[in-house]
Write a sequence for this structure.
């Protein structure tokens, strides 16, 4: 009978160790497909500054490439500026093909758990400074149907903002539909990830409406920077 995967490897499970190395020894993987929105980046940076680095940096000794932790390391670089700082990393020893597979696997949501929303709500109820969890009150409103720490005033303010945003969109759409002037265009992507990738390359804030001159300037700069 063929042995199961667990039986084959349970006696030889590799536990990779950690070392402290210089930042100059770490190369950002040129193929890394991960991107991050400016909103998520701000949350990650705030958490790093408040609570410190708690792991997540994986480095391949054989190639010198970073396997996981590109966003964290990029933020830490902005904190230490041009210093060749020391940083603890999990050190692996892979060939390039295995490295690339693990670059994907370590961030693959299909290989990660998910939240039990009932337990998550119980855990988060009453927590001060809920933003420290990475969620906002708007997020909790979407997940649970109610904000955990919302006051009546907060609900009124949120509803007013949503109403104003909807009215603004209606006005812009009406102008676009009725105007005879060709001063606008609409860009459509098949997937949200494609849109976000373009915004990142152009270094444009996540906004539904972008001035034409700003868009052209961003494209020119991206070309000069070799991003396009």
């Amino acid at each position: 009978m063929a042995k199961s995967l667990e039986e084959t490897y349970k006696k030889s499970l590799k536990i990779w160790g950690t070392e402290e190395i210089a930042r100059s020894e770490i190369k950002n993987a040129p193929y890394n497909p991960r991107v991050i929105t400016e909103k998520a980046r701000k949350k990650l940076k705030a958490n790093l500054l408040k609570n410190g680095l708690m792991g997540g940096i994986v480095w391949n000794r054989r190639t010198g490439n970073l396997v996981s932790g590109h966003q964290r390391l990029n933020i830490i670089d902005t904190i230490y500026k041009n210093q060749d700082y020391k940083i603890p990393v999990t050190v692996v020893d892979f060939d390039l093909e295995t490295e690339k597979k693990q670059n994907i696997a370590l961030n693959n949501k299909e290989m990660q758990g998910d939240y039990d929303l009932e337990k998550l709500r119980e855990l988060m109820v009453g927590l001060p400074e809920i933003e420290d969890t990475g969620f906002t009150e708007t997020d909790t409103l979407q997940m649970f149907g109610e904000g955990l720490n919302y006051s009546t005033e907060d609900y009124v303010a949120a509803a007013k903002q949503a109403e104003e945003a909807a009215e603004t969109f209606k006005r812009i759409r009406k102008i676009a539909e009725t105007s005879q002037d060709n001063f606008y265009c609409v860009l459509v992507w098949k997937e949200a990830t494609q849109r976000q990738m373009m915004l990142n390359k152009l270094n444009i804030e996540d906004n539904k409406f972008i001035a034409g001159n700003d868009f052209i300037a961003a494209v020119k700069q991206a070309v000069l920077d070799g991003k396009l």
Observations:
- The CA atoms of residues 5 and 102 lie 18 Å apart.
- The first helix runs from residue 5 to 9.
